[in-house]
Design goal:
Blueprint lengths: L1 H11 L10 H22 L8 H12 L7 H25 L3 H25 L6 H25 L10 H9 L11 H25 L3 H20 L11
């Protein structure tokens, strides 16, 4: 139990000399953002995810089969925009070089611009979940999530993909002592899952109880915090800023 708590704590407050430095807490912030934007997209834009592409593949199949409440166009648009965002991430990461802090700062700034645009649109229209505004919001948010996921892949911080939890949860169970393993890293993996849960919970609460686009505002605040922190903390080119 103590090991589990220590692992979780060190994701939030990395120990001196940690190979990934402050990247872990910053990526935890991005994981919370995933929960926020997916709560908004699913509950407001109608049975479509902008970060969880596994769900969209399934939704696409449901829509093709004629299931009610699922949109072929929205699911396909989210998948395409996410892929385009990941492609863009790959291009600018190659252009920026190997400095991980700068990668994260630039990627989070770009995503912040997309989320801010989506938030302005969401607060400007009468019915967010219908008409052209729905598809514009799906496009903007999925582009941002694709950028986030692509950059996170390059950063290669263990157990922090920020948008996918299936492998994280599988690893925690498969590597556990009950399964005959010795190093489940359940503290890290569990905290990663908790971060997304908390983001989704807050996002759902704001949609249902407060104001639909408020979750996007919270995501924007987190993104600007991550972007600013990554730029500031990597300025002196510390060890963690180098390739993993």
């Amino acid at each position: 139990m103590l090991t589990t708590v220590t692992e979780a704590w060190q994701m939030v407050v990395p120990p001196p000399g940690d190979r990934h430095g402050p990247l872990s807490p910053m990526l935890l912030g991005l994981t919370v953002i995933t929960g926020l934007v997916d709560a908004f997209s699913y509950l407001v834009l109608g049975h479509v995810f902008v970060a969880n592409m596994t769900g969209n593949v399934v939704f696409l199949a449901f829509a093709l089969a004629g299931a009610k409440g699922f949109s072929l166009a929205a699911s396909a648009l989210a998948l395409g925009a996410f892929a385009l965002g990941a492609l863009a991430s790959g291009r600018f990461v190659a252009h920026l070089g190997e400095r991980r802090g700068r990668m994260l700062a630039v990627s989070s700034t770009g995503q912040a611009v997309l989320v801010a645009t989506a938030m302005i649109i969401a607060w400007s229209v009468t019915d967010v979940g219908t008409g052209a505004s729905r598809y514009v919001l799906v496009l903007l948010l999925a582009l941002g999530s694709g950028m986030q996921t692509g950059t996170t892949r390059k950063l290669a911080v263990p157990d922090l993909t920020t948008t996918v939890l299936t492998q994280t949860i599988t690893g925690a169970a498969f590597d556990s002592r009950l399964a005959g393993g010795t190093n489940s890293r359940i503290g890290r993996r569990g905290f990663s899952a908790l971060a997304m849960f908390v983001g989704a919970l807050i996002g759902a609460f704001t949609v249902i109880q407060v104001d639909e686009p408020l979750g996007l505002l919270l995501a924007l605040v987190l993104l600007t915090t991550v972007a600013g922190s990554a730029a500031l903390l990597s300025r002196s080119q510390p060890t963690w800023d180098r390739p993993a």
